[in-house]
Amino acid sequence: MAVVKRDFPTLDGCAAAIAGAIGETLGHAIDRRGEAVLALSGGRTPRHVLPLLAEQRLDWSKVTVTLVDERWVDPSHPDSNEKLVRGFLLTGAARAARFVPLKTKAATPEQGIDEAEANLDKLSWPMEAIFLGLGEDGHIASLFPGEGAWEEAAGRCVAVPASDSRLARISLSARALLDCRRIYLLFAGANKGKAFAAALRPGPIRDHPLRLVLGQEKVPVFVYATD
Question: Which of 16, 111, 145, 175 qualifies as a FRET site for 118, CA 20 to 30 Å off?
């Protein structure tokens, strides 16, 4: 399945375009099926996109929002993706959307994964859309190159242990990331552009997780990029 890529001169223009596209996708899903499920990434660029998405004219009461991944921290923590989504998206009319977190009250993601799985199982699958970011090392969600057995995970999420450079996390699995109708990817900067180009080249998915998305033929992928 072809990857559709659009390049923009500014991040603001890129953010406006992807917010509009996601909003249109959600609106069509509500018209056809009466509901829409959207999974969101955290990070810096979503801070530009989510306020614009919140302004889309939708029946937000029919939208369910969850996360692509989450750091295992309290929802009030500055690094919490839940905090980001609540502060930047779930405002105004979009406050009516239902939010399903990945983080539970368990002490670790390993201990909380069963509850997270149960919460995800209650969603309407396939999800309508997933909004992904991209790491300079090619990681998506919290699926990191060369780590763990996330490719073989049978469930909808995987526990990601802490390392010297990052907090413990929970992430949608490879299976869950592809259980959707559309994937939207946004990245900004030359280094991430190089990571995207590398993912287009043949090679093991484990070495470059973005290949999971770009190399499959099930779900259309829409890429929005800016320098």
Answer: 145
